[in-house]
Amino acid sequence: MSTLKFQSQAVAKPYFAFALILFIGQILFGLIMGLQYVVGDFLAGAIPFNVARMVHTNLLIVWLLFGFMGSAYYLVPEEADTELYSPKLAMILFWVFAAAGTATILGYLLVPYSTLAEFTFNELWPTMGREFLEQPTITKIGIVVVALGFLFNLGMTILKGRKTAINMVLMTGLIGLAVFFLFAFYNPVNLALDKYFWWFVVHLWVEGVWELIMGAILAYVLIKVTGVDREVIEKWLYVIIAMALISGILGTGHHFYWLATPEYWQWVGSIFSAIEPLPFFAMVLYAFNMVNRRRREHPNKAATLWALGTSVMAFLGAGVWGFLHTLAPVNYYTHGSQITAAHGHMAFYGAYAMIVMTIISYAMPKLRGIGEANSNKAQVCEMWGFWLMTVAMVFITLFLTGAGILQVWLQRLPESGEALSFMATQDKLAIFYWMREVSGVIFLLGLLAYIYSFFIGGKAAEKVS
User: Fold this and answer.
1) Where are the alpha helices (H) located in 408-421, listed in sequence order?
2) What is the pLDDT of residues 420-451, one digit of tens each?
3) Dist CA 282 CA 396 (whole Å)
4) Residue 460: phi, psi to the nearest 5?
5) Residue 308 gets which letter from DSSP?
6) What is the distance between the alpha carbons of residues 128 and 359, in angstroms, rounded to a whole number?
7) Its catalytic activity (predicted)?
């Protein structure tokens, strides 16, 4: 028996399932890299560190994109109060994107990167060789084609249906995602200029338009699980999004400090980056306020936990840990250290991994025909997954922060004499890397518990009261 309001929402299911498979892959390659930090020759012949890192970061981006697409296909028809324009197009794009993504990852693993560049005719339009954007040019073109088809499908759905603030904010974020990705095709020879525009993709995604996507999904889930008036939630959403865009766009300046750019970027970057935690803090207040004011007891307790956890962890990771090293006088010493890695891990998990898992938690019982929520037994397992992953990520962040502080102290702030070399410093950080690796294993167990919860049977939780 279907519990979906619109049958076309079912196209979200393969997107969510494939996203979680890629997420497992991302964590496995993270564990391989973590071990290579302390056992340098571990799998060195089969999966060199640079390849493992490339796969780890690319899987992160691709699984989140699958998650965002699944989220949009699930919530846009319901918000627009009409069937998806073309479920068939959505499925064709799924298989195209899945095949292209899988082929690209296999290319990284099975072929030397320079050979892959030659094989994919990179010399005709050189775009390869930059972190996060290592994809061959033909893969990048494929991503653009998929994005255009995806936006067309959603746009036509919204045009024929109801226009809501959530759909408008989500579409603005998704269009921005597609537009800023176009800078991936611009690869100037000058390295400083290249990095300048490279951040237009990386920063304006994660600290700009992705925040709109996150805010829209969070608003949708909170409406469903709390029953609070849409008008109240939409007002909060507009305020948060305005703050996020104003601080995020000009906050790009904190990447321009040491790129031979004019000195005013140190002021612009520092001031607006200092404001960036505010929209995330507003999101915490917003989520907890809505849950406290709820008008209904929703049986999906796990989805509510994920929604609250997302706001808190995004604030800690993106807001607090971002602020720790974003001011130019501090960043002068911490730039490119393990403190950056600490911020990156918790921010990506808190803001984007968790929001995707929030909507998967809410939508999967309906997509699988179970009802409003999984059984209580399944939800307990899912909550174990939540706490294992979240606590593990907190410790990963703390251990990387400890490593970063010691790294800065030994390598960049010597009390007397010369600073230690990079490799000599890394040897001193080994204990932090080992603890980070253990935390990573616990995180993987949490992810497996989260996924396993969807396979636990039992009587579905009671209906909304």
Assistant:
1) none
2) 888 999 999 999 999 999 999 999 999 999 99
3) 25
4) -60, 145
5) H
6) 33
7) nitrous oxide + 2 Fe(III)-[cytochrome c] + H2O = 2 nitric oxide + 2 Fe(II)-[cytochrome c] + 2 H(+)
Strand residues in 199-260 grouped as ranges (E): none
How far the first Cα of the chain sits from its last, in Å, is 21
Cβ-based neighbour number of residue 435 at 10 Å: 17
pLDDT at 453 over 50: yes
Interatomic CA distance for residues 63 and 322, integer angstroms: 23
Lowest mean pLDDT among 41-45, 136-140, 363-367, 398-402: 41-45
Per-residue pLDDT, averaged over 8-27, amounts to 96
Q: Give the integer Cα–Cα distance in Å for 40 and 108.
A: 20
Phi, psi at 373, each rounded to 5°: -155, 155
Q: What is the dihedral of CA 236, 318, 151, 226, to 10 degrees?
A: -40
Q: What one-character DSSP code corresponds to residue 460?
A: B
**In this predicted structure, what is the pLDDT of residue 297?**
84
Is the pLDDT at 96 greater than 60? The verdict is yes
Strand partners, 375: 460
Q: Cβ(287)–Cβ(221) under 8 Å? A: no
Q: What angle do CA 23, 352, 133 make, to 5 degrees?
A: 70
CA-based R_g, the chain, Å: 22
Asked if residue 153 lies in contact with residue 90, where contact means CB atoms within 8 angstroms, the answer is yes
Residue with the two structure tokens 């997954």: 385
Cβ neighbours around 23 below 10 Å, total: 23
Average pLDDT over residues 297-324: 93
The CA distance from 319 to 339, in Å, is 14
String of b and e for 316-346 (b: at least 16 CB within 10 Å)?
Answer: bbbbbbbbbbbbbeebeebbebbbbbbbbbb
pLDDT at residue 86 greater than cutoff 90: yes
Tens of pLDDT, residues 253-268: 999 999 989 999 999 9
